[in-house]
UniProtKB/TrEMBL annotation:
Keywords: Germination, Lipoprotein, Membrane, Palmitate, Signal. This is Ger(X)C family spore germination protein. PANTHER family: SPORE GERMINATION PROTEIN B3 (PTHR35789). Pfam families: Spore_GerAC, Spore_GerAC_N. It comes from Paenibacillus glycinis. Belongs to the GerABKC lipoprotein family.
Length: 373
């Protein structure tokens, strides 16, 4: 009876009916898209992994780690069918590292792209989303240094930059965008650019010791409101946005103390917001560590208090400047409207900052040397 029961259970098992051989798949590592605002025609790019180039033994012509396929159509759903006209393998999207859209596509609205990814069962909604600060053709057709696949290179940059975030990553996944579309508070998405006007289509173009001439670079953030790009933030403004919205808990601040530069790492940043009759009050606490000290005087208890006080005042001043900038551009970057407050521009925002120095380095004073005649 046990054997019969086991056999019946085996008959109910589906087995490997949906198994796919890797040599039958076109595994997409990086995707990109552009949309013409006049015609609505969409250009899609699929960067497909070349498995033979990633093995130790490479054949003569198979040197590129990825190949870029380009298609044009008016509907996102038609691209899968189009790939069968040139790709000898089935399109496979679940391993895509990032999705990059052109700036003009983002300004028209990205709701169609979000719906396309969200409603497709074979696509991951945790794929990261980026805006192109350079022409899509340049970004998608360039090799990357140190990493053979540009998609993995860009994903690694995002993972490293997200180490200071509370969750370990920036909230820039497709599913984060889908949730943020219904809020009044805009979302900020990284802008990736390429440092050269010409793409590095072959590895010979990368044979230069100064890699910054031809590489990928993050240059700030794109501001999205209800799924449409409405403007840009520079690097410092983007960082302030995530700090005040409780996403970023660790960053480096440069202070001027006694006429000299002091770089401090602010960590374990705790942000509390409270609405009251007088407006919105922020209470910020941070732990400081000196990472660079150019002062010519020893670090004393009084000097440490000067550094802490300077950090507190500078954090408050920069945050107030950020609030004024957002109001002038009609961007509720603090999400005040999400609390049901319509007249958000007239809400008084105050900052109370407290910091505590935890480490000053191995020595308390600088090394000095007086030159003789």
């Amino acid at each position: 009876m046990k054997i019969i029961g086991i056999l019946i259970c085996l008959l109910l098992c589906s087995g490997c009916w949906d198994m796919k051989e890797i040599n039958q798949l076109a595994i997409v590592n990086l995707g990109a898209a552009d949309k013409d605002p006049e015609t609505g025609r969409i250009t899609a790019y699929y960067q497909v992994i070349n498995p033979s180039a990633l093995t130790n033994k490479q054949s003569g012509a198979a040197k590129a780690a990825v190949y870029t396929f380009k298609f044009e159509d008016f509907s996102l759903g038609r691209f899968t069918r189009q790939t069968t006209t040139i790709m000898p393998r089935s399109l496979f999207m679940p391993h895509m590292q990032a999705l990059i859209l052109s700036e003009r596509y983002a300004k028209q609205g990205i709701t169609d792209m979000i719906n396309f990814v969200e409603l497709s069962p074979d696509r991951r909604t945790n794929v990261i989303f980026l805006i192109a600060g350079s022409p899509i053709e340049t970004i998608i057709n360039s090799f990357s240094p140190l990493e053979r696949m540009p998609g993995r290179y860009i994903r690694s940059l995002i993972n490293l930059s997200g180490q200071g975030f509370e969750t370990g990553y920036e909230p820039i996944r497709i599913k984060d965008l889908a949730k943020g579309m219904y809020r009044k508070k805009p979302m900020v998405i990284p802008i990736v650019s390429y440092t050269s006007s010409e793409p590095a289509k072959d590895t010979n173009r990368l044979e230069d010791i100064d890699i910054r001439k031809k590489t990928f670079l993050f240059v700030g953030g794109a501001v999205f409101r209800h799924g449409r790009m409405v403007g840009r933030l520079n690097f410092d403004e983007k960082q302030r946005y995530f700090l005040l919205n409780k996403n970023l808990t660790n960053y480096i601040e440069t202070l001027t103390v006694n006429g000299d530069y002091v770089d401090v790492e602010a960590s374990h940043i705790r942000v509390r917001r409270k609405f009251n009759a007088s407006g919105l009050t922020y209470r910020i606490r941070a732990t400081l560590r000196i990472v660079n000290n150019q002062q010519t005087t020893p670090v004393t208890r009084g000097n440490i208090r000067d550094i802490e006080d300077k950090f507190n005042r500078q954090f408050e001043a920069e945050s107030q400047a950020f609030v004024r900038m957002a109001a002038n551009k009609d961007w509720d970057l603090l999400g005040i409207q999400d609390r049901g407050i319509r007249d958000w521009k007239h809400v008084k925002v105050t900052f109370k900052v407290e910091s505590d120095m935890s480490a000053i380095g191995n020595t308390t004073g600088p090394h000095t040397f007086e030159r003789g005649n």
